[in-house]
Specification:
2 domains, two-stranded parallel sheet, Rossmann fold, alpha/beta, 30% helix, 8 helices, nine-stranded mixed beta sheet
């Protein structure tokens, strides 16, 4: 199978690898110099920084050495390209890894029919004491999708990033929220208005929609996904991070009046037609109390006795084991928020970099 991308095609050594020949690996030989240079350029194009291999900057000539830095970048690429196949994470460039790189890189030669611009949307809601706008990097750090660049001479600023080789854009919009439920209707309306304005000015086809949020923003992320579904849209991804729920939102009850119940509350919010659903949560801050009228109930020292748990229909990841028992309820919530938001952001970045259309 011949290589098709501009960066990898035309190199006899790489064509040999693609056909099942000797793989590129640490340490490389002098005969591998050009092939390793091409792999290093491809890794940078695909979003993997190689500062030591490009001593004079990313636009200069790479050193052509398959060293530790290049090997680690190959492993990082393999983890993104083959997330469910750890056997591929070996740091060697063999036929399968090379062909996946080639598939993701722009093809050689001019495209006779340029594709229309497609814009993927990333929306974040962050629970906070006061409402307001999030910076684009607060929605999704650009460092995670470094291949995308700001549009020159455009009023969008850093909210819109463009892929340098493909007709693709990423739009980043977010809000700080201190409301949930019907009280967030105005927030949703303002986000939709901003997204529609950007789409109209870009004259772009709609791409995938990624939504994530933490605390009250986690509830809003789920509700916003459901709201978009009622409008006929199908969000690609939603992630809730220690989303704010309360005893009234669940039929679950603690097993005893103890400081740290083992029972995990189950909540059943609707995320509409969303394809991929993730929930990052902790239960360190969940406690129990006894009510004379209602019996055992979940509680916490957080505002409104906020509690956290699993979500029906979501991939649930419990982060409690990462949190010290000495933390207060608010501190556990904050630490879970940071760790979960980082994980959700990386999932979104991986999908954008690999351009997975599933």
């Amino acid at each position: 199978m011949h290589l098709r991308s501009a960066q990898l095609s035309g190199c006899r050594r790489l064509e040999d690898v693609s056909a099942g020949g000797r793989v590129l690996q640490l340490p490389s030989t002098p005969d591998d110099f050009e092939a390793v240079q091409r792999i290093q350029r491809a890794l940078v194009t695909l979003g993997h920084a190689l500062p030591r291999s490009f001593p004079n900057g990313p636009n200069s000539e790479p050193d052509g050495k398959f060293g530790t830095e290049t090997r680690q970048a190959v492993i990082a690429f393999q983890k993104r390209a083959f997330p469910n196949d750890p056997k591929q994470w070996d740091g060697r460039v063999g036929p399968k890894t090379l062909r996946k790189m080639d598939e993701l890189l722009p093809a050689a030669g001019p495209d006779p029919t340029p594709a229309k611009l497609r814009a993927d949307l990333v929306v974040r809601f962050r629970g906070a004491a006061t409402a307001g706008n999030l910076t684009p990097d607060g929605v999704l750090p650009r460092s995670l999708i470094a291949i995308f660049n700001e549009m020159p001479n455009h009023t969008f600023g850093p909210r819109v990033l463009m892929h340098p080789h493909k007709s693709r854009a990423v739009v980043r919009v977010g809000r700080q929220t201190n409301t949930i439920g019907l009280a967030s209707a105005g927030v949703f309306a303002s986000v939709l208005a901003e997204l529609r304005l950007i789409h109209e000015r870009l004259r772009a086809d709609p791409g995938r929609i990624f939504i994530h949020g933490s605390s009250s923003g986690g509830r809003n992320a789920i509700d916003f996904a459901n709201h978009l579904s009622t409008l006929g849209l199908k969000p690609h991804f939603v992630a809730a991070v220690d989303a704010a729920f309360f005893q009234a939102d669940t039929a679950s009850r603690p097993e005893a009046n103890v400081d740290q119940p083992t029972t995990v509350p189950l909540f059943t919010p609707s995320a509409g037609a969303t394809v991929n659903r993730h929930n990052f949560f902790q239960t360190r801050g969940n406690h129990a109390k006894r009510s004379a009228r209602r019996g055992l109930l979940f509680t916490s020292s957080m505002a409104g006795e906020e509690i956290h748990g699993t979500l029906s229909g979501f991939i649930n990841l419990d982060l409690t084991s990462f949190l010290s028992r000495e933390l207060s309820d608010d501190q556990a919530h904050e630490k879970c928020g940071r760790r979960g938001t980082d994980a959700a952001s990386r999932l979104i970045a991986d999908a954008l970099l690999l351009d997975d259309q599933d």
